[in-house]
Amino acid sequence: MTILRVLRPFLLLVLTGWAVADSRTDWALHGRDTGEQRYSPLTSVNAENVNQLGLAWFFEDKTDRALEATPIVVNGVMYVSGTWSVVYALDARSGALLWEYDPRVPRERAGTFCCDVVNRGVAVADGRVFVGTLDGRLIALAADSGERLWEVVTVDQSKPYSITGAPRVIDGRVVIGNGGAEYGVRGYVSAYEAASGNLLWRFHTVPGNPEDGFESDAMAKAATTWNGEWWRYGGGGTVWDHMAYDPELDLLYIGVGNGSPWNRRIRSPGGGDNLYLASIVALRPATGEYVWHYQVVPAETWDYTATQHMVLADISWQGRPRKVLMQAPKSGFFMILDRETGELLSAEPFAEVTWASHYDLETGRPVENPGQDYAGGKATVKPGGGGAHNWQPMAWDPEREWMFIPKMEAPFIYVEPETFVYKPGWRNQGTDRRESPPGNELLHRAISRRISQGFLLAWDVKAGKPAWEVPLPTAWNGGVLATAGDLVFQGNGDARFVAYHAGSGEILWEYHTQSPVLAAPVSYELDGEQYVTIAVGGGGAFGLMSGVKPSTLAPKSRFLTFKLGAAKTLPELPPREPIPEPPQLRPRDTARIDQGRALYAENCAYCHGVGAISGGTLPDLRHMNTPTHELFARIVGDGVYQALGMPDFGEVLSDDEIDAIHTYLIEEAHEDHDLRNTPAWLLAIKRVWYEALAWFISLFLSASSASA
């Protein structure tokens, strides 16, 4: 081993500016350390005294939508990102605002963002703060003032690219990916010089049109695993979230996303693994040179990304020391790879899985169950497109060698479309979404509770099985922090921030946050006091689409910070606006209502909720007021609310189709009005009936999955 290789980790700290931060007391990197373990060595707050934790300060975001950022804390300053990619620098002791930077993302681009107007955090190095913006820019700010130092556009802004993930800084290089696979883009990851913003290298994750030539040998190799004219649909494979870096091996690991469209028969007719979709790829961070890859789901067709959190650790595996990379991707198998070579060491299911029976460790490939790729027309599959684990970070306990995972159990019904028409710039999933769930709210809620649930899972890595598991009231919950104080912190979708005993899962402390939680907590120390910070604010993919019932109070998106003995309180939340009376019903036309229902499911449900039942982040379209009803056609067809983030659907919907959607929504408004005015005794009877019906439906869905 050369002297340079030995000294590399220490040189890295100096060159990137991380040496100025105390690696124990600060939270200077996205995962606290380069291994992305999200494990704090601090012990002042521990299992014995965590019940004395209280609110020290809070800071409110500009909007009341989803917050997903991991705060970065360096030398007493906290750097966080909020909605619309706004960056704040806060005094980490008091929460006082030091500076604010708004990149002014055009609101009309909201229609090209998959899963809310979120940002998962910034990177801080060498006196600079780096942030990726929703419209595809990478910006460097002065850490002491927020002054913009440079800005580069990292994408073709004429295409529906976006950035929601946090950058990484390695040896003076800022690495950033992008999103937009559902909308038809080609994924890649780029590195820019931290001092100037000059582009240093770019690694594409899927091949482009062969007639244009290939950017690298890796792309030429990947092209042999594709068929048809995939480049017409973009191909997908966006690096929209997680990356990790091993300074000793000098390897950058990127997680690659789903295909565009999802459906592999449309995307690549004739088959093929479609590299590097749903893969973990190891690159040289200095050049972007390909080193190795492991494809988690070959020829993925279910939106099974490998963009989920990766953790690097050194463990003893089957009697020998191994440098491993661990991931709990959407597909439901806990993956352990040798991070030097990419060899698959283990793949055990950590959730219910129906798409594959197991992984063959000799070939490293999954063994798919027949019928689950919906080639026969329809399939109920677990996990669904939301995954058994999504972007919310997990946390590693190096003492127990357990991983704490925010797990989901939820199926998805995939339907092969009779025809597929590619719509540039719009969602092109290749699955038929026109079948809408029941608009009946009682039945919808009952089914949701039966078929989708969240858990905090403690996964014993060596044993390949759960150590303990805690069921949660909702499926969509926050990321995780583990500490040397024998604690695991997680915020939940039911507006609770909870501390669990790491060894048993026992709840030791909880705090009502007033808003759902998606982000992961961090912990840091100042003046001998340990702090714990969490961003609260619900939404995101599941929060927008699922129709999970919102609180009757208007939520607030905030950054909350706790310490022992603090006793600050949050202001009381105001009630939501009163629900207006629905407009006059139109003459009942069942065919017209069904047409509107199908069009709504295909075009509107992603943001305003399935079955026209909002999750509370965006307006519930059953509760529109009279002026909004009067403007409905212009809002949807002419884009008069684009400045507020409402896309213009005039290119994909005719005036008649927009009117059909309006007819359907008026019908649902009256259904909702009647439900809210149902006598309590009758409502109780209906609830019992719908709970029973939901039980039968969940049994049917389980049987459908099992029979496949």
Topology of helices and strands:
Elements: H1 3-16, E1 39-40, E2 53-60, E3 72-74, E4 77-81, E5 87-91, E6 97-101, E7 123-125, E8 128-132, E9 137-142, E10 148-153, E11 168-170, E12 173-176, E13 188-193, E14 199-204, H2 217-223, E15 235-236, E16 243-246, E17 251-255, E18 259-260, H3 264-267, E19 279-283, E20 290-295, E21 310-317, E22 320-327, E23 333-338, E24 344-349, E25 356-360, E26 365-368, E27 378-381, E28 395-397, E29 402-409, E30 412-415, H4 441-451, E31 453-460, E32 465-472, E33 480-483, E34 487-491, E35 496-501, E36 507-512, E37 522-526, E38 529-536, H5 540-545, E39 558-564, H6 590-603, H7 605-608, H8 626-638, H9 655-676, H10 680-707
Parallel strand pairs: 1-33
Antiparallel strand pairs: 2-39, 3-4, 4-5, 5-6, 7-8, 8-9, 9-10, 11-12, 12-13, 13-14, 15-18, 16-17, 17-19, 19-20, 21-22, 22-23, 23-24, 25-26, 27-30, 28-29, 29-31, 31-32, 33-34, 34-35, 35-36, 37-38, 38-39
Helix pairs in contact: 4-10, 6-9, 8-9
